[in-house]
Amino acid sequence: MQTAYFIGVDGGGTQCRTRLTNQNGDILAACTGGPANIWSQFDSAMKRVCQLLDETLHAAGFGPREARQTHVVLGLAGGNISRVRVQAQAWPQAYASWQVFSDVEIACPGAHHGQPGAVLITGTGSQGAVWDGQAFRCVGGWGMSLSDQGSGAWLGQQALRLALKAHENLVEHTPLTRALMANFDNEPETLLAWSVQATPAQWGQFAPQIFQAAREQDNHGVALLACCAQEVSALISNLSQNGRYPVAMLGGLALPIHPWLSAEIQAMLVPAGGDALSGALRLARLCA
């Protein structure tokens, strides 16, 4: 029986990671590189992934023969877009098998040790996925203009809209809204010019300030986080399917928003048992 190897790839919007194992699950090599979002930058992302795969094989002392014995699963940001997933699946390669998923999908079997379960990633953006043991169902992940509810970018956008309202005396000013407008010299036109070109990460940079304001009982800070928790709760309820699936919440907002969730919603949550790369490696074995 021919020896088999497995590589998991976790490609996000800020960095890409790989992990190579043998049939016993021993880690033979691991590498880290730049971003790999196939929706926003398809060609550069795929080239970066392939270069990182080459580096991973090289780090293990492997050559073309071992590459042909290696099963690869890629979990890539933007992989939820069917058109680009098909393109990535068709990318020229010389591995034993090659399967493309989204980065949130590979997190599911990783978080639940290969068993059915769900994950909700709440960071700069938000997206969830359910793994029933055979297939995935995803929610969200369509960008902050259409989706990403309950995320850092969404929270920052809601806060700046509120700050602008307060500046125009449509709602009361609080220390939070005053501090937010001060970032733009209290000039709506300055805020407008910034908003036109702001990235999700730039919108999300205000999230820590909002959490701090809520801790200080700022009325708007408290209201914003209550609304954010409501959005997150709706996603968790949908993913859980009335308690059928345990949900692991990941991402930069997962810990700070947790106390704002009701006891009923918190009961649906479980700690993640493993990371996204371990999930990709589990899928690689299934696809072999």
UniProtKB/TrEMBL annotation:
Annotated keywords: Kinase, Transferase
Domain of life according to the entry: Bacteria
Alphabetized CDD domains for the sequence: ASKHA_NBD_GspK-like
A Pfam family per the record: BcrAD_BadFG
GO molecular-function terms, A-Z: kinase activity
Domain ATPase BadF/BadG/BcrA/BcrD type positions: 7-255
PANTHER family referenced in this protein's UniProt entry, alphabetically: N-ACETYL-D-GLUCOSAMINE KINASE (PTHR43190:SF3)
Identification of the protein by name: N-acetylglucosamine kinase
Annotated organism of origin: Mangrovibacter phragmitis
